[in-house]
Amino acid sequence: MKNKTKYFAYPYLIWMVIFIVFPCLLVVLYSITTKDSNGLTTIHFTLESFKKFFDPLYMNILWDSIFLAALSTAICLFLGYPAAFIISKANISIRSTILFLCILPMWMNMLLRTYAWMTILGNNGIINNILSFFGLPRLNLLYTRGATIMGMVYNFLPFMILPIYTALSKMDTGILEAADDLGANKLIEFKKIILPLSMPGVISGIVMVFMPAVSTFIIPQLLGGNKSMMIGNLIEKLFILNGDWNFGSAISIIMMVIILISMAIMNKFDVDKEGGARLW
């Protein structure tokens, strides 16, 4: 029976090879090739595209992207953990409704959600119209780094809430009852029990927010304008506007390595993937 059921995995394996493995190999191939004077790609090994990336201009864009992604992730954690905790403690009858409202914006395309923020933050947007109504000066909210961070937090916050909620909802309440019997107060319970047991969800949330945030290009392009050039925007321009697929592929490989390293580092803290972190 097992020999027969394994054949059901073949369509998925074929899909992976065609749409994941093969495109990645093409990106690697372009990253180690160059174009000759006629614009033709010559197949020979070279690291010129990778060396070009270490120019101070591109390195500044990289560090700026990591900084904005890390800041957005920190804000999502600051907002997402209390929200997940409140949802996990809510009555079962309304918990599903709250989760539905949390997931509902994700049903809409991210591009449309970002366009909605343009109407909110624009010079003639909702916020500035409210300020004008009360006789207050208008604010320059759109096309700023703050608008970029706000857009990333809004779009990626559910990815922080859901894994933390999952970890909190699976927590054994008997441990908290035992802590109450031993005289522990709420602060000690949170510090010694709830927070350590929820760390797998926190780690998953950080990874799920940081990875798309560091490589996003739609949000900084629409909300940040020319003031928030991120590494995703650079890759997009190299591929679409400049037609420099070799350099764009090299930067893509570098970003893949950075994301894999960040995932490996975060997994070091995820000491118990089945039920929570250690309590000491």
Tally the beta strands: 2
Q: Can you name the CATH architecture? A: Orthogonal Bundle
H/E topology pattern: HHEEHHHHHHHHHHH
What spatial order of strands do you see in the largest sheet?
1-2
Q: Total domains, how many?
A: 1
Which superfamily, in CATH terms, is the homologous superfamily?
A: MetI-like
Distance between the termini: 45 Å
Poorly predicted runs are: 271-280
Beta-strand portion reads under 5%
Query: Can you summarize the main beta sheet?
Result: 2 strands, antiparallel
Structural account:
Helices cover 73% and strands 1% of the residues. It has helices at residues 2-5, 10-31, 48-53, 56-89, 92-103, 110-121, 126-133, 145-169, 173-181, 186-215, 218-224, 231-241, 245-269, and strands spanning 34-35, 41-42. A two-stranded antiparallel sheet has the order 1-2. Strand 1 and strand 2 (41-42) form a beta hairpin. Helix 4 packs across helix 8.
Task: Tell me the layout of helices and strands.
Layout: H1 2-5, H2 10-31, E1 34-35, E2 41-42, H3 48-53, H4 56-89, H5 92-103, H6 110-121, H7 126-133, H8 145-169, H9 173-181, H10 186-215, H11 218-224, H12 231-241, H13 245-269
Antiparallel strand pairs: 1-2
